[in-house]
Amino acid sequence: MKIKRALIIPDCHIPFEDLRAYDLCLEVASYLGIHEIVILGDYLDFYAVQSHPKDPDIPNLIQREIECGISRLDELDKLFPKANKVFICGNHCYRLDRYLRDRAPELFGLIQLPRLLGLHERDNWTWVPYGPEQKYRVLSSKLYSRHEPIGPSAKTTAQRGMCSIVFGHIHSIQEHQVVSLDGSNFRAMCPGWLGNKNHKVFSYVKNHAQWSEGFGIANVLENGEFFYNTCHIIHNKTHYNGKLFKV
């Protein structure tokens, strides 16, 4: 039976990503061979337009964030030219729309993140807008993906969603399974994140030291069934299918 494989990239918060963790994610994907890449949201941070107090020592330029994001997308296109790629918009990426809506309504709709990143000019890219109904089926399988969980945890997401979901947003590696009375199996998973928790840009979050690094690999069968694995990143190393990867 033919198996297709998807790389699940959780929150990176570029340009504040953990460089080693991100490179390790791409190294594993290059080794395995990938048919699809799903960015779970918050690929960029948009610190410049956040509503929290800003640190005066941190560069505060949207242009720099966009350029870093474009560079990372160029890298994905170069490494995986034939793979389908999905950019799910997270709440941090949505900061730009919210800023324009509240501070510069004359430009709302004119300045759009997909256009700034050149997604429409890139081959094999799909944009999934931010919102409560957000969802994307990984490799057209029974596994859905979205940025935010449907509840505060994987457990409540599995119980409320009544479908299998991989999500980002919480920066914590979690997984929960629910089996209904008729035997239907639903799983909800968060693969962690790929940001640099030691960067002071995240110091406004009290529990940022507890955030865990990782990414996901989904193996999808022809009938839509899937097998999902979280690749935990510990001390710049991860393990998948009997092989140790490190940077």
Tags for this entry?
247 residues, alpha/beta, six-stranded mixed β-sheet, five-stranded mixed β-sheet, 5 helices
Q: Beta-strand percentage?
A: 25-35%
- Binned, the helix content reads 10-25%
Number of helices: 5
Rg result? 18 Å
Q: What composes the largest sheet?
A: 6 strands, mixed
Mean pLDDT: 93
Overall outline: globular
Description:
This protein has 247 residues and is α/β, with parallel strands linked by helices. The protein has one domain. It contains five helices and 13 strands. The chain has a six-stranded mixed sheet, with helices on one face. A five-stranded mixed sheet has the order 5-6-7-9-8, with helices on one face. It has a two-stranded antiparallel ribbon with strand order 12-13. Strand 12 and strand 13 form a beta hairpin. The relative contact order is 0.20. The mean pLDDT is 93.
Task: Please provide a brief summary of the model.
The protein is α/β, with parallel strands linked by helices and 247 residues long. The chain has one domain. 21% of the residues lie in helices and 27% in strands.
